[in-house]
Protein backbone atom coordinates (compact mmCIF):
# COMPACT_ATOMS: atom_id res chain seq x y z
CA UNK A 1 0.00 0.00 0.00
CA UNK A 2 1.41 3.37 -1.02
CA UNK A 3 1.92 6.11 1.53
CA UNK A 4 -0.81 8.21 -0.10
CA UNK A 5 -3.29 5.40 0.53
CA UNK A 6 -2.11 5.12 4.14
CA UNK A 7 -2.74 8.82 4.79
CA UNK A 8 -6.25 8.55 3.36
CA UNK A 9 -6.83 5.34 5.32
CA UNK A 10 -5.75 6.98 8.59
CA UNK A 11 -7.98 9.98 7.86
CA UNK A 12 -11.00 7.77 7.08
CA UNK A 13 -10.32 5.61 10.15
CA UNK A 14 -10.42 8.74 12.32
CA UNK A 15 -13.51 9.99 10.46
CA UNK A 16 -11.85 13.24 9.44
CA UNK A 17 -12.18 15.33 6.30
CA UNK A 18 -9.02 16.55 4.61
CA UNK A 19 -9.67 19.97 6.12
CA UNK A 20 -10.10 18.53 9.61
CA UNK A 21 -6.87 16.51 9.35
CA UNK A 22 -5.05 19.59 8.07
CA UNK A 23 -6.28 21.64 11.04
CA UNK A 24 -5.43 18.87 13.48
CA UNK A 25 -1.88 18.57 12.13
CA UNK A 26 -1.43 22.31 11.58
CA UNK A 27 -0.77 21.97 7.85
CA UNK A 28 -2.67 23.24 4.82
CA UNK A 29 -5.41 21.30 3.06
CA UNK A 30 -3.15 21.39 -0.03
CA UNK A 31 -0.52 19.53 1.98
CA UNK A 32 -2.96 16.76 2.94
CA UNK A 33 -4.14 16.58 -0.67
CA UNK A 34 -0.52 16.33 -1.81
CA UNK A 35 0.14 13.48 0.61
CA UNK A 36 -2.96 11.61 -0.49
CA UNK A 37 -2.28 12.30 -4.16
CA UNK A 38 1.26 10.96 -3.84
CA UNK A 39 2.86 14.25 -4.99
CA UNK A 40 4.99 14.31 -1.84
CA UNK A 41 5.19 12.50 1.48
CA UNK A 42 4.89 13.74 5.04
CA UNK A 43 8.31 14.21 6.58
CA UNK A 44 9.80 14.69 10.02
CA UNK A 45 7.24 15.42 12.70
CA UNK A 46 4.26 15.04 10.37
CA UNK A 47 5.27 11.50 9.47
CA UNK A 48 5.64 10.60 13.16
CA UNK A 49 2.35 12.26 14.02
CA UNK A 50 0.53 10.25 11.35
CA UNK A 51 2.12 7.07 12.71
CA UNK A 52 0.91 7.93 16.20
CA UNK A 53 -2.58 8.80 14.94
CA UNK A 54 -2.81 5.47 13.14
CA UNK A 55 -1.57 3.49 16.16
CA UNK A 56 -3.53 5.19 18.93
CA UNK A 57 -7.04 6.65 18.71
CA UNK A 58 -6.33 8.70 21.86
CA UNK A 59 -3.98 10.91 19.84
CA UNK A 60 -6.91 12.53 18.03
CA UNK A 61 -8.54 14.04 21.16
CA UNK A 62 -5.12 15.08 22.45
CA UNK A 63 -4.36 16.95 19.24
CA UNK A 64 -7.83 18.51 19.15
CA UNK A 65 -7.18 19.88 22.64
CA UNK A 66 -4.14 21.79 21.36
CA UNK A 67 -5.19 22.68 17.82
CA UNK A 68 -5.95 26.31 18.70
CA UNK A 69 -2.90 26.72 20.93
CA UNK A 70 -0.92 29.61 19.48
CA UNK A 71 2.17 29.12 21.63
CA UNK A 72 3.80 27.25 18.74
CA UNK A 73 3.64 28.85 15.30
CA UNK A 74 3.77 26.54 12.29
CA UNK A 75 6.44 27.02 9.66
CA UNK A 76 4.93 28.72 6.64
CA UNK A 77 5.83 26.58 3.65
CA UNK A 78 4.58 25.55 0.25
CA UNK A 79 5.89 22.20 -1.00
CA UNK A 80 4.51 22.75 -4.49
CA UNK A 81 6.24 26.11 -4.93
CA UNK A 82 9.27 25.00 -2.85
CA UNK A 83 9.06 28.05 -0.59
CA UNK A 84 9.69 28.41 3.13
CA UNK A 85 8.41 31.65 4.67
CA UNK A 86 8.17 33.00 1.12
CA UNK A 87 11.82 32.18 0.37
CA UNK A 88 12.28 30.19 -2.85
CA UNK A 89 14.39 27.04 -2.57
CA UNK A 90 16.56 25.94 -5.51
CA UNK A 91 15.52 22.27 -5.34
CA UNK A 92 13.24 19.79 -3.58
CA UNK A 93 16.29 18.36 -1.80
CA UNK A 94 17.16 21.73 -0.25
CA UNK A 95 13.48 22.39 0.56
CA UNK A 96 13.02 19.03 2.31
CA UNK A 97 16.26 19.27 4.28
CA UNK A 98 15.61 22.81 5.47
CA UNK A 99 11.98 22.14 6.43
CA UNK A 100 13.16 19.18 8.49
CA UNK A 101 16.02 21.09 10.13
CA UNK A 102 14.01 24.24 10.89
CA UNK A 103 10.90 22.47 12.21
CA UNK A 104 13.02 20.27 14.48
CA UNK A 105 14.56 23.40 15.99
CA UNK A 106 11.11 25.00 16.35
CA UNK A 107 10.17 22.23 18.78
CA UNK A 108 12.98 23.58 20.96
CA UNK A 109 11.54 27.11 20.90
CA UNK A 110 13.38 28.53 17.88
CA UNK A 111 11.37 31.07 15.88
CA UNK A 112 12.86 31.45 12.40
CA UNK A 113 12.68 34.60 10.31
CA UNK A 114 12.68 34.86 6.52
CA UNK A 115 16.24 36.21 6.84
CA UNK A 116 17.22 33.02 8.69
CA UNK A 117 15.68 30.89 5.94
CA UNK A 118 17.56 32.85 3.25
CA UNK A 119 20.79 32.37 5.20
CA UNK A 120 20.22 28.61 5.55
CA UNK A 121 19.38 28.34 1.83
CA UNK A 122 22.42 30.35 0.77
CA UNK A 123 24.73 28.28 2.97
CA UNK A 124 23.09 24.90 2.46
CA UNK A 125 25.58 22.06 2.78
CA UNK A 126 28.27 24.20 4.39
CA UNK A 127 29.63 23.50 7.84
CA UNK A 128 29.44 26.75 9.78
CA UNK A 129 31.83 27.11 12.74
CA UNK A 130 30.10 27.39 16.11
CA UNK A 131 31.73 30.79 16.70
CA UNK A 132 30.09 32.11 13.51
CA UNK A 133 26.68 30.72 14.51
CA UNK A 134 26.90 32.35 17.95
CA UNK A 135 28.00 35.64 16.38
CA UNK A 136 25.18 35.49 13.82
Automatic annotation (TrEMBL):
Residues 7-43 form the HTH cro/C1-type domain. One of its GO terms (molecular function) is DNA binding. CDD domains: HTH_XRE. InterPro entries: Cro/C1-type_HTH (IPR001387), Lambda_DNA-bd_dom_sf (IPR010982). This is HTH cro/C1-type domain-containing protein. It comes from Schleiferilactobacillus shenzhenensis LY-73.
